[in-house]
Specification:
By secondary structure, this protein is an alpha+beta fold. The protein has 2 helices and 4 strands; from the N terminus they run ββαββα. The strands form 2 sheets. It has a two-stranded antiparallel ribbon with strand order 1-2. Strands 3-4 form a two-stranded antiparallel sheet. A hairpin with a 6-residue loop joins strand 3 (38-40) and strand 4.
Length: 68
Amino acid sequence: DRKHPTVRPCLDWTERRYHLAGPIGVAFFLRLVELKWIAGTRDSRAMRVTSAGHVAFERRLGLTIPQR
């Protein structure tokens, strides 16, 4: 359905970077939160990669996420 795509890019207006949007993006986000791979930050809507997330992203997906 062209009106409601399953997945689409969405430009974040504050950071001017694209992120995954649509039902697939929501499902992916909720699963990462459920697995505790990501967590919210105290003073903003930003999310951070947790210690468990750093390990899991590297082991399972071959991604190295820079530590901040």
